[in-house]
Amino acid sequence: MSGPPMPRRRRRITAVSPQTGEPLPPALSRVLDYAQEREGTGLAGDLERIARITDPYELLRAATDRLADAQLEVTELARLRRRLIQDLHAQGLSYAQIGEAAGLSRGRIHQIRHTGPAPEGAFLGAGRITIATPLKREERQGRPVVAVEDVTASGRLAALARSFALEVDTEHVPLGGAIDLNRAGLIVICGPRLSEVMAKAYGQDPVIRWEQTGVGAWALRDTRTGDLHVSGLDDGSGRPRDVAYLGRLPRPDGNGTFLAFTGLHPPGTLGVVALLASDVGALWGQVGTERFSVVVGVSYDPDTREPESTELLTPLYRHGQD
Predict the structure, then answer these.
(1) Confidence check: pLDDT of 5 > 80
(2) Domain architecture of the chain: domains with CATH
(3) From CA 80, how far away is CA 140, in angstroms rounded?
(4) Predicted model pTM
């Protein structure tokens, strides 16, 4: 999906503690964590297992599937390698020093640092991600439909993910909102109104809370400051300004996290994608793959409803930090 170009500016973003509001240091590289998660998926063992398959068609399918997985692993290893060099260089080591310690030339280290998939792509996931958008019931005929803005947001996010060499699948949150959140690489574009499952997931956020105003409109409250963030479509002003939630929340099974975002209205959803397109590197540098949440303000064109600018209305809260 195409849209108005959003400038790739460098925004200064700092994560803070939900409890104290104090700034937190940038998230560290997760190279070792990732290596532990991938342990036991070695190619050698799989090759031996596949080679023992006697049925030629089953062997062909198994070899094809494993090759696809191996290609994803190669991409993620390249991303991790580039991130590690980036981290070491940021700590003050020269490319020559890194190369000497690793047994590689300075030129090779420099080449790795500037080629391959960008490290910040890991903010969205690793290898393969799934983007889920909600089905809504059509008012007139009652048929399940997907909002045009959700399709647009999903398409733009998929394009961003593919620019980071990620594989992308898409699916729908069914009517009624039942969705399995216990999966790796999941990004859900859905609010609490359309899914009780998502309402419970948002309830795990320790600092940002979904609330309904006296007129029944949804709003987002920063419980640390008490500030309530309401869309211009709901506060009586009519201003072309929306509000959105962006966060990484724990899975119900406790074995990982998933990314979730949505606007109070469609322009807010598109605004989050615009923010990710311009500032995913800054967000990744502050929170890595840890749990976090933030409220995003989106100014948009009242005619096209396309985002014109975005800003963080709350601090970038990194969960689990005192």
Answers:
(1) no
(2) 15-22+122-318 (3.30.379.10), 38-117 (no CATH)
(3) 50
(4) 0.78
